[in-house]
Every structure is written in C-alpha cells, then in structure tokens.
Specification:
The complex is a heterodimer of chains A (196) and B (101). By secondary structure, chain A is mainly α. Helix content of chain A is 79%, strand content 0%. Chain A has seven helices and no strands. Chain B is flat. Chain B starts with a helix and ends with a helix. Classes of the chains: A mainly alpha (196), B mainly alpha (101). Chains A and B meet through helix 1, helix 3 and helix 7 of A and helix 1, helix 2 and helix 3 of B.
C-alpha cells in the first residue's frame, strides 16, 4: 500500500507529511539546545568569574568553521534547487560539496579539540570548558548525523530520483531543513562561546 | 503554476540564496570585528546577539523557506518559541530571585 501525502500536501495542514514531521523534530531540537543555553546562562550569571572565550579558544579556526558551515548551507539549498530544475548532475555536485564542507568542519573542530587537550584543557577542568565541550560536542554529533543522512541521499538513496523524482526532491528539502538548523545553532554558539 | 513559472521561481530563489550567503559572510566578519572593539560587556553582548538573530532569521526565512511557509508550521514555531523563552529565562530568574530574597 502506498503511504499517503509523500508528495501531495495533506488537505488539513497544507504540507506533505515528511515536512511536518521534520519541523516537529526541529521543535524538539530547539528545546534540547534551549535547555543547554539556559544552563549556560544560569552558570555564567551565577559564577564569580567567567573567562572570555576568545582568551582560551581559537577564534580564527572557529571563524573559519562558521564560514564553512554557512557555505555548506548554501550548497545544500542549491542541491535542492538543482533538483527542482531537473538537473541531477548539479544536485550530485552540490550535495557532494555539502558533504566535503561538513567533513572540513569536523577536521577543523578536531584540530581545535586536539589543541585544547594538548594544553590539558578537558571538560572537567572548568565550568566554562564543561559547557564548551558539551555544546560543541553535541553540535558536532548533529553534524555527523546530518552527514550520514546526506551521504545516503547522495549515494544509494539517490536511486529514487529515477522512480519517484518529486518524492526524492522532498527528501532533499527536509534533509536541508535539518542541515540549516544545525548551521543556525552554530550561528548562536560561535559568538556565545568564542567571542563573549 | 506552469512548469515554466516554476523554473523561473526557483531561479529567482537561487539569486536570493546568493545574496543571503554574501550577507551572512559579511555579518560573520562584522561579528568578529565588533567582539575585538573593547566595548562595555552589555553593549558587546547586545550587538553580538543582534547580529546572530539577524543571521539566524535569514537562514530560517530564506534557506528554510520560512518566509513563505504554511500556517501549520508558524503555529508549531510559535509554541516552540514560547516554551523556549520559558526554558531560557525561568531558571535564571528563579535563581536571581533566590539570591535577592
């Protein structure tokens, strides 16, 4: 039996089901990161002293990662636009670039973590570092999750383009929603942890 | 909407994506520059969060198509934002209350 509303919108919501589902999932993600941001504000306002992130962390590398992640959001949305324009080759190119940029983000983050550990800075070292590693670690896991999904859609999952192109285009759109959300979280993490 | 209109609409959106991308890059440079200007902490935090909010709304509005979405999503987000602010400020205000009572 065909699952309904994969392509055509449901009459009551005006949306295809996957889009509604991903937005509900993103709402739960807002609450997850919201709880952690709230903990950060609570700990920071209650602490007698709190270090400036830029004195401990590597701002140039974090700026580079911000540029990388914004660029990956751009390539992700372009991969969806390419499918809307029926250009599968360009979709493959843009999605491939998104994956490479995501990998680049993780490599840069790996260098940052390596430098922190090299200077004996661990999550247990201070409250600031506990918050830093928790927030950036959880964000990094989201990047890995997004790469797994995007990698599937770039590789074996792309077969659907031949059998059901509209449904595949919708899959790329909802994968993009998640990916842009991960970018959005970083847009707030970057100044909060590194600059202020 | 005809297929030609659809193609034109996507091409128009693509130009918007490029403009947003360029704006986000400029705003990223601005965020870093402002942070190193030695301003009072309250002003620095205000400016950094204002830029982050602006960048975030561009990503959500244009890349995530939120500026042209259906009502159902706006309702979900309205509820989420309300709960998010409760979650964000309630523990802080409650701790502040305890310290000042």
């Amino acid at each position: 039996m065909e699952i309904p509303y994969n392509v055509e919108p449901r009459p009551d919501t005006g949306l295809y089901n996957a889009k509604l589902g991903v937005w509900l999932f993103l709402a739960s993600e807002v609450m997850l990161f919201g709880a952690l941001f709230s903990s950060y504000i609570l700990l920071r306002t209650g602490a007698p002293v709190w270090p400036m992130g830029r004195q401990l962390l590597n701002v140039p590398l974090a700026t580079l990662n911000t540029v990388i992640l914004i660029a990956s959001s751009m390539t992700m949305v372009m991969s969806w636009a390419s499918l809307k324009l029926k250009n599968f080759g360009k979709f493959r190119l843009y999605m491939g670039l998104t994956l490479l940029l995501a990998l680049g983000f993780l490599v840069v983050k790996g260098f940052e973590y390596g430098a922190e550990f090299g200077e004996h800075r661990f999550p247990a070292t201070s409250m600031f570092l506990a918050v830093y590693f928790t927030l950036t670690g959880l964000h990094g896991l989201h990047i890995v999750g997004g790469m797994i999904v995007n990698g599937y859609l770039w590789g074996p999952g792309a077969k659907m383009w031949k059998t059901d192109p509209e449904r595949f285009t919708n899959r790329i759109e909802v994968a993009g929603l998640y990916w842009h959300f991960v970018d959005l979280v970083w847009i707030f993490l970057f100044p909060t942890l590194y600059l202020l | 909407m005809s297929s030609h209109d659809d193609v034109e609409s996507v091409k128009k959106q693509t130009r918007a994506y490029l403009k947003v991308f360029a704006t986000l890059m400029v705003m990223t440079v601005l965020t870093v520059a402002v942070a190193f200007m030695h301003m009072p902490p309250v002003v620095a935090i205000g400016i950094a969060l204002a830029i982050a909010l602006f960048k975030g709304s561009l990503v959500a509005g244009v890349f995530m198509h939120l500026f042209h979405e259906h009502k159902a999503i706006y309702w979900i987000l309205l509820l989420t934002v309300a709960f998010f602010f409760v979650l964000l400020f309630w523990p802080t205000l409650s701790a502040w209350d305890q310290r000042h009572l």
